[in-house]
Amino acid sequence: MQLWGGRFSGKMDPQAWQLNASLSFDHRLARQDVRGSLAWAGALEQAGVLSSDERRQICAGLEAIDAEFANGEFIFVESDEDIHTAVERRLGELIGLLAGKLHTGRSRNDQVATDLRLWLLDHLPILDASLRELQSALIQRAEHDLDVLMPGYTHLQRAQAILLGHWWLSHFWPLQRDRQRLAQALQRAAILPLGSGALAGAPFEVDRLALAGELGFSDAAPNSLDAVSDRDFVAEFLFCAALIGVHLSRLAENVVLFASAEFGYFELSDAYATGSSLMPQKKNPDVFELTRGKAGALLGYLTGLLAVLKGLPSSYDKDLQEDKPPLFAAYDTLMAILPVLAGALQSLTVHADRMRDALDAGLMATDLADYLVDKGLPFRQAHTLVGKLVQLAQSQGKPLNSISLDEIRALADPEINLKIDPSIYSVFDPLQSVSRRCSFGGTAPQAVRSQLERAKQVLGGF
Ligand code: ARG
Asked: Would you call 276 a catalytic residue per the annotation?
């Protein structure tokens, strides 16, 4: 069956038909399509287009179809161009010619936009739950590794000592923002296109607000032309997905580095590592590399859709059929990655000793400058003086904390020299160094503990 054959006398070229068909991917909208049709049948009755008996028969047929989908018993046929055709064809098989009344005043244009929004409303909470699981894994890690000292990096150069708990939590907050963004995207997706017809509206009075409420939307789209062309909600979702990809990729890249022998900070559990077919000694972080790699595709889904949208005249164009593959692919990609990441992070081993060994005295150079500031030297001069000490230590091939008091005094002003004593060496204790960073959001143990409490609160019911 075809929904549009009347004005044609020739048959469609089989390859053109294949190109045109979307069932291979829009079958995923089956349940949403039936739900939209059930609501539309109700609207048709209210508008006096269907008698209540007709509506009842149509709805009984649709319920039977829904059950077939739910049980995996629905049989698609060769001629089902898309999911909307398949459902209407099956309805006809079940209730006869009356099925043909369901599409009154409706177009696949407002239908597909409605189905896709419904699909997002159904699936965003599932994605949100997976993101939340990963956040919860990060919280557990932060709690477990809270006091482990490690080098913090900028430009991938050792910078200052930080706590590993602080580092884990630095990956928690981006995901929190991602979840907020998704929640906002969901609000904008919850606007009903149904009742917009092909482009110009329905030829009878439909209570679109009631229809919106019934289907779980918060409002009805105020312009029928806009309603059938608007795919902002898909683009917004794909942006959210792309940014989640960026966040996950950054985390993954860190883990790949830290699991290398050069760093040796992390070791992956066997459950989340892979081997080499040639080199027996290898233990590879494939799941993190794939996370990083798939983030590339996630960016592509967004730019691909935006490119589809940018050249379109307003209203429905068949190009819009291309909105679904990237939407489903982005969702599937994230749903494949997120649980694996949560498990891999939870089960990895931290080598605190390796992190501690990497805390060379140079990481406390800022603390040395801060000490001199404490003794009255302006920070800029303190910075220069410590820079000279770093240079001196390097030229002698020794760590910064092996510089003698005399060597320091030789470079500092006499006035400051009077105030310098052996207590200066305490600045090289990394625990003291992190403890000094006690501002809100800093890496001091107390600050990280409050941050952890806040993260748990934000997550709710942790
Ligand atoms: N399969 C189509 C899509 O996904 C449904 C809408 C078809 N509308 C049309 N005017 N041919 O966009």
From this structure: yes
